[in-house]
Predict the structure of AbrB/MazE/SpoVT family DNA-binding domain-containing protein.
Amino acid sequence: MENINIGETRGVIRKIDELGRVTLPKEFRDTLELKEKDEVEIFLLKDGFYIRKIQKLDNYRMNLKQIKKQDG
């Protein structure tokens, strides 16, 4: 996994709902320009999670990896 740039740290507390979901604060979504239907990638770390927006180039790379796996 690439190095994580944590930038300016801002903490908020959110509750997990009955389906295991957490809502990202609007300020975070605005800062990262996340819109409805955008895809995010979630990494499990030792002591938490890292979430990042999927870029179109990332989707292209993931598709290439899937094709390579299928071709053996």
